[in-house]
């Protein structure tokens, strides 16, 4: 049966060949395939927090009432809590089931078939995924050899079909920061500008204080990284109030669950403790960078996030990823333009760095 005779003829033609997003493998799927028991696998492939969440979250979830009741669709309490954390009025704030959901929601609001989105590559893969799901086209503007964004090339790429500029800051997978002056230049284009600050707590740099001054600046944040809540899925965005209203209107009802709300509340009460963990990760990032630099066959790039990207100078990044996986260390490799033969290590606890360095020394270039 050809696609035109089967169920495919009812499916959107542009989605028949859609590749989807290649998400990380869960450690439990690797049982028996690696040299260590599943519980000893070291996960350095998805930029999660190696310290987990605040113990207050575990305690509160154990006695969490109201699991039989839908959460507040208007996110009133959650938005108020986020107002306290960000210092930005709740009317600017919308929360999502992870910041991924907000990336998707923002693109759905602005992008339809034929529209163009400017993307500064290499960068986070979800921007492509959600733009193409909306029927939009990504216009790729390459970063320079140190992964800095090229503002004049972005401006030159603007056409009358351009509906948005997306910028991850710090960028994933490169860890690069874009200076505020460059972001201001992008805002000056008057196009909607989406700045993804998923790793803000590791960089300390933010354009959130500018959100209330501009009608085209949107900033996304998450609790997945600094607060260790990746599994509960909670992120938020700061928007001009008009855009926040539209997003609240088009979002799926009850999109942030009751457990996530409790987890945010407890995490914010324990923010000092969590930021202590963030400081430990930043210190470990420095140590890991030094260790990687000593390896002649890897070139690490400076990072303001909780991971380090390296160019693999001898050998294949894909093979290296596999050899590390065999030893029970999961990492991410990149081998599609513009990243040819790169590997990315999330920053773990000191013992994770020790195990990674030992394995890299054993594997060699
Ligand atoms: C730049 C960037 N934005 C957003 C996300 C998604 O975060 P969340 O877990 O909040 O969906 C990630 C996750 O890796 C990321 O790297």
Task: Walk me through what this model shows.
By secondary structure, the protein is an alpha/beta fold. The chain has 13 helices and 13 strands. It has a seven-stranded mixed β-sheet, sandwiched between helices. A four-stranded antiparallel β-sheet has the order 9-10-13-12, with helices on one face. Strands 1-11 form a two-stranded parallel sheet. The chain starts with 12 loop residues before the first helix and ends with a helix.
Q: Mind sketching the topology for me?
A:
Layout: H1 13-16, E1 42-43, H2 55-62, H3 76-86, E2 93-96, H4 99-110, E3 116-121, H5 126-133, E4 137-142, H6 151-157, E5 162-168, H7 180-187, E6 193-196, H8 200-203, E7 217-222, E8 235-238, H9 241-250, H10 258-269, H11 271-294, E9 298-300, E10 307-312, H12 317-326, E11 329-330, E12 332-336, E13 339-346, H13 350-363
Parallel strand pairs: 1-11, 3-4, 3-5, 5-6, 6-7
Antiparallel strand pairs: 2-8, 7-8, 9-10, 10-13, 12-13
Helix pairs in contact: 2-10, 3-10, 4-5
Bound molecules: pyridoxal-5'-phosphate.
């Amino acid at each position: 049966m050809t696609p035109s005779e089967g169920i495919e003829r009812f499916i959107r033609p542009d989605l028949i060949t859609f590749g989807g997003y290649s998400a990380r493998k869960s450690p439990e799927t690797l049982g028996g395939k690696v040299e260590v028991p599943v519980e000893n696998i070291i996960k350095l492939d998805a930029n999660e927090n190696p310290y987990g969440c605040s113990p207050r979250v575990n305690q509160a979830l154990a006695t969490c009432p109201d699991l039989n009741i839908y959460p507040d669709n208007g996110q009133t309490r959650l938005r108020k809590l986020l107002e306290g954390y960000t210092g930005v009025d709740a009317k600017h704030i919308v929360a999502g089931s992870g910041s991924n959901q907000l990336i998707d929601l923002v693109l759905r609001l602005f992008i339809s078939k034929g529209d163009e989105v400017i993307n500064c590559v290499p960068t986070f893969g979800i921007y492509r995924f959600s733009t193409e799901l909306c029927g939009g086209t990504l216009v790729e503007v390459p970063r320079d050899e140190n992964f800095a964004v090229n503002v004049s090339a972005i401006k030159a790429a603007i056409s009358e079909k351009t509906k948005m500029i997306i910028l991850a800051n710090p960028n994933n997978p490169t860890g690069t920061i874009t200076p505020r002056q460059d972001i201001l230049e992008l805002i000056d284009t008057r196009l909607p500008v989406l700045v993804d600050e998923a790793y803000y707590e590791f960089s300390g740099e933010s354009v959130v204080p500018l959100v209330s001054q501009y009608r085209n600046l949107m900033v996304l944040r998450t609790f997945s990284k600094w607060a260790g809540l990746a599994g509960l899925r909670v992120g938020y965005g700061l928007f001009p109030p008009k855009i926040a209203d539209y997003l609240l209107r088009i979002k799926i009802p009850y999109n942030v669950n009751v457990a996530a709300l409790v987890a945010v509340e407890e995490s914010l009460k324990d923010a000092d403790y969590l930021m202590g963990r963030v400081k430990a990760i930043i210190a470990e990032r420095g140590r890991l960078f030094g260790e990687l630099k000593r390896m002649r066959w890897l070139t690490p790039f400076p990072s303001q996030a909780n991971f380090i990207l390296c160019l693999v100078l001898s050998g294949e990044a894909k093979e290296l990823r596999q050899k590390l996986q065999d030893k029970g260390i999961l990492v991410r490799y990149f081998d599609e333009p513009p990243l040819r033969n790169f590997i990315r290590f999330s920053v773990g606890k000191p013992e994770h760095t020790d195990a990674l360095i030992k394995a890299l020394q054993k594997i060699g270039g």
